[in-house]
């Protein structure tokens, strides 16, 4: 349903997304994960026909997003990051306006239906300016659903909702995703884990990982970290542990406390304990820390040290 | 075309919700009433010395001037507000062509101004009762036709400028500058002379209104205003489209 190939977008000298390639199949919920500024919104804006890419091409429902933009826009429901609402309109008027622009038959029935889906039927005649943040978000979702699109593109659909509403919206998206293709962006991992069939992790405009949430977690389960605490200031501790075989990066958290990454599948703790005792350290505590998706996410998207020649003003713009 | 109408209808309704439009309409009618009252007073004094009946021009003449300054205020919101609020994203990702958006916005504002012009008919009607044997209907009709064309034109320019910036105040002042430029062409025409005068006469915005004002409807004037309107709407559509590329 969504085919993206070599998609690149520049804002002036800044490259927002670089050579993205991915697909979303019919009936699939694809999660788009990444820190703020990773290029999620840019990608979605290109897919919805809001703006054209600098390079590469994308097809939605078989239509090119640049050449056949109108056909794409007819078939896509889009919830932008900042929900675009007209505060001077009532909920019903707003949805009717959106439905009218999409030339829907039996507009009023359809509006009633989507109001029911997002549980806003009681506020139908209330002004949008009086809605809470969560209601606005749901109204935005209703707007994206009103023309029963084949593809739904949701930019951070649960942002600003309270936990009960988040659960509600997630259930709703899963429900919708059974019949349609959904592309949703989020920076909450557990959300992607719960809703999505497949996850794309994107950072600085490039895809870092593409996998199912289950695989991602399984792949990570092997890797582990060990935290070691000794008495005293722990001089030389980092060096000692780092020299052991099967140990990756070692970082000092504070005096006498370090964390070591170790290769999956090998138990290194007895070896570490022996070494430390022989070297004369007073071992207080040693425990393994399981890497969560969160950690991996941070690791994958961690900012590399900036090369000295980087132009700061360009980066920030 | 259907989208044009849907957007225009929304735009038109919005004028009756927003306070700006009411304030503008109020002052427009108030000032017009004041000028009308003054002109009537002058006419009464003049009539004491010689037979004199004021024509409908005493209403139309100040209206042209007022429109030049009212239109920027009426049109400044149209597209720039959508850009500021981010709702432009909604319209540009809906299956609406860029020109349909611009023309829809224009039509909505134009219909609002037409409604305002319709209200000002009260003055000619009053005048018709005051003078014998009534006012010259020809000038009334040609004058109002000209006003409609001016409004169409200034609305299109306003919508175009509105599509350029997301700040309404900037839109207002840029629009005002354009209007002042239009205003200033007339005195400049006489000063230029030769070919310059010919060119300036053709592009003279107010100059093309003079025929309507005198009661004659000339095709060239209609073509002038309509082509200027189309040009501004075209530029507006281009501006919306280039917004996507930025």
Describe what this molecule looks like in 3D.
The complex is a heterodimer of chains A (317) and B (246). With 317 residues, chain A is α/β, with parallel strands linked by helices. Chain A has 2 domains: 2-218, P-loop containing nucleotide triphosphate hydrolases (Rossmann fold), CATH 3.40.50.300; 224-290, Alpha-Beta Plaits (2-Layer Sandwich), CATH 3.30.70.100. Helices cover 35% and strands 28% of the residues of chain A. Chain A is built from 12 helices and 14 strands. The longest helix of chain A is centred in the middle third of the chain and has 15 residues, at 163-177. With 246 residues, chain B is an all-alpha fold. Chain B has one domain. Chain B is built from 12 helices and no strands.
Total number of helical segments of chain A? 12
Overall domain count of chain B: 1
Q: Characterize the overall form of chain A.
A: elongated
Quantity of strands of chain A, as a count: 14
What is the secondary structure topology, with strand pairs?
The complex is a heterodimer of chains A (317) and B (246).
Chain A: E1 2-11, E2 14-24, E3 29-33, H1 40-47, E4 55-60, E5 63-64, H2 69-75, E6 76-79, H3 91-101, H4 107-117, H5 133-145, E7 151-155, H6 163-177, E8 181-186, H7 189-195, E9 198-203, E10 206-211, H8 213-222, E11 224-230, H9 237-242, E12 247-254, E13 257-262, H10 269-278, E14 283-290, H11 293-301, H12 312-316
Parallel strand pairs in A: 3-8, 3-9, 6-7, 7-8
Antiparallel strand pairs in A: 1-2, 1-4, 4-5, 9-10, 11-13, 11-14, 12-13
Chain B: H1 2-15, H2 19-49, H3 57-75, H4 80-85, H5 88-92, H6 98-119, H7 122-130, H8 137-162, H9 168-192, H10 194-203, H11 210-214, H12 219-245
């Amino acid at each position: 349903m969504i085919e993206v190939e070599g998609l690149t977008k520049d804002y002036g000298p800044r490259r927002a997304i670089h050579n993205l390639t991915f697909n979303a199949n019919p009936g699939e919920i694809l999660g788009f994960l990444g820190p703020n500024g990773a290029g999620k919104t840019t990608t979605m804006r290109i897919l919805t026909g809001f703006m054209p890419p600098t390079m590469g091409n994308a097809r939605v429902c078989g239509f090119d997003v640049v050449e056949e933009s109108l056909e794409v826009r007819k078939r896509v429901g889009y919830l932008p990051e900042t929900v675009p609402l007209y505060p001077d309109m009532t909920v019903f008027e707003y949805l009717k306006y959106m439905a009218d622009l999409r030339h829907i038959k039996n507009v009023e029935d359809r509006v009633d239906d989507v109001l029911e889906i997002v549980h806003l039927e009681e506020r139908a005649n209330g002004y949008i300016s009086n809605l809470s943040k969560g209601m606005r978000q749901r109204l935005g979702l209703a707007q994206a659903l009103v023309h029963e699109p084949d593809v739904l593109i949701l930019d951070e659909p649960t942002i600003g909702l309270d936990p009960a509403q988040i659960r509600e919206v997630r259930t709703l998206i899963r429900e919708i995703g059974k019949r349609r293709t959904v592309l949703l962006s989020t920076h909450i991992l557990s959300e992607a884990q719960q809703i999505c069939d497949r996850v794309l992790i994107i950072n600085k405009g490039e895809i870092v990982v593409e996998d199912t949430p289950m695989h991602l977690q399984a792949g990570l389960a092997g890797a582990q970290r060990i935290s070691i605490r000794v008495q005293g200031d722990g001089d030389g501790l980092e060096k000692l542990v780092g020299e052991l075989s099967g140990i990756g990066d070692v970082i000092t958290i504070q005096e006498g406390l370090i964390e070591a990454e170790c290769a999956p599948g090998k138990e290194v703790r007895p070896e570490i304990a022996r070494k430390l005792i022989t070297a004369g350290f007073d071992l207080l505590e040693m425990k393994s820390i399981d890497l969560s998706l969160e950690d991996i996410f941070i690791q994958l998207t961690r900012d590399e040290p900036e090369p000295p020649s980087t132009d700061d003003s360009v980066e920030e713009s | 075309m259907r989208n044009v109408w849907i957007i225009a209808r929304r735009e038109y309704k919005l004028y009756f919700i927003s306070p700006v439009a009411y304030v503008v309409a109020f002052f427009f009618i108030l000032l017009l009433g004041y000028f009308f009252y003054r002109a009537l007073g002058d006419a009464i004094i003049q009539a004491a010395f010689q037979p004199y009946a004021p024509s409908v021009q005493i209403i139309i003449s100040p209206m042209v001037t007022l429109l030049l300054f009212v239109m920027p205020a009426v049109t400044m919101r149209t597209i720039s507000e959508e850009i500021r609020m981010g709702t432009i994203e909604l319209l540009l990702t809906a299956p609406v062509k860029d020109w349909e958006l611009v023309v829809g916005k224009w039509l909505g504002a134009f219909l609002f101004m037409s409604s305002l012009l319709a209200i000002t008919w009260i003055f000619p009607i009053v005048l018709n009762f005051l003078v014998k044997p009534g006012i010259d209907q020809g000038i009334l009709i040609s004058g109002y036709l000209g006003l409609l064309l001016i409004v169409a034109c200034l609305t299109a320019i306003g919508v175009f400028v509105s599509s350029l910036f997301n700040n309404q105040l900037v839109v207002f002042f840029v629009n005002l500058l354009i209007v002042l430029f239009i205003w200033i062409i007339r005195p400049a025409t006489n000063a230029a002379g030769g070919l310059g005068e010919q060119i300036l006469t053709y592009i003279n915005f107010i100059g093309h209104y003079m025929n309507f004002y005198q009661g004659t409807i000339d095709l060239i004037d209609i073509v002038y205003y309509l082509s200027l309107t189309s040009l501004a709407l075209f530029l507006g559509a281009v501006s919306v489209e280039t917004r996507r590329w930025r």
